[in-house]
Structure of Phosphatidate cytidylyltransferase:
Amino acid sequence: NLQESESENKLDGETASDSESRSEFGGSPPVPTSDDTPEVLNRALSNLSSRWKNWWVRGILTLAMITFFFIIIYLGPMVLMMIVMCVQIKCFHEIITIGYNVYHSYDLPWFRTLSWYFLLCVNYFFYGETVTDYFFTLVQREEPLRILSKYHRFISFALYLTGFCMFVLSLVKKHYRLQFYMFGWTHVTLLIVVTQSHLIIHNLFEGMIWFIVPISCVICNDIMAYMFGFFFGRTPLIKLSPKKTWEGFIGGFFATVLFGLLLSYVMSGYRCFTCPVEFNNDTNSFTVDCEPSELFQLQEYNIPLVLQSVVGWKTVRMYPFQIHSIALSTFASLIGPFGGFFASGFKRAFKIKDFANTIPGHGGIMDRFDCQYLMATFVNVYIASFIRGPNPSKLIQQFLTLRPDQQLHIFNTLKAHLVDKGVLGSLEDA
């Protein structure tokens, strides 16, 4: 057992093979974080066992977070984007702080400043791409924005190179290894946090429903897996999370799929949820008004013969989006939890309970969003693979920015193509 423990410690990076590593890492592991439960709840729940006290604390705070979620949805897309930005910054802060504690890097020259500088650079790149893509007309209308848009990638690369050179110049002889550890830690954190939050915003622009349903499915799965596990859990699921059980995992799956179907049915009937979020140049505001696509129009489907005798129906009317919601809720239930398992493994590797103690009973913001980031990537890939097609409005916007001779060339090419297909001729005859 002692040999296994020593071997595990070496794998975890808690012991070093040379004096340099010992001096860099130190001998003490980071201090585990703990939840600061409000005194009001402590007094109200003082007569309960720790198990039931934790259940009530988590339940009350979960309801509070769900209420806050509904409020920010009501406030609209702009507020949602700002909230995503704030969550991203907080998650980055929690992860990077763990790195500072683990590697005792508070005294490294410029490193805290460089970490936040790289966050600023990456955000400038991603949000600049988003502005250029979704606010194309506004960008072309304003001269400063047009120049920034034209040279956006070059500016972004120049900013990153500045940070890169600053890092090289900050290297200290006795701390090379430690500084490169933190350099890698910062970049992996940026990859996990900033990239995923960027994808969440892209999903939002496809329609609020692509933002709300996936996030709600992850929340539902988290709650229902906890409830089923709390009351019926007996069989451990994975060693990384000893409290997770097969009963909670399976119960959460069926509850989430059913929840996804019901939520999708309700939301598919409202244009404010189904229409793409677009920027109106006349009013300088976001609009979500459109003619619903086929995804959000009720259609009749034949029920398989095997199920007809069970349900007693031959056909069912539902929105095509509900079929896609099955894929989303299935991913949220079966693959999404692995984001949480990954986070659990990360925390165990550095012997911490939570990423922070921001939310009583839940830990840090990253503890609540570990599955959401994985879900955001899946939704973005799913939309690009199965949903999104060419956007006529964006093509027209780009067409109008071309030189007159280029526009004329495209016009003649398109006219010849339509004549060959017989479309233009039939229109002229009509």
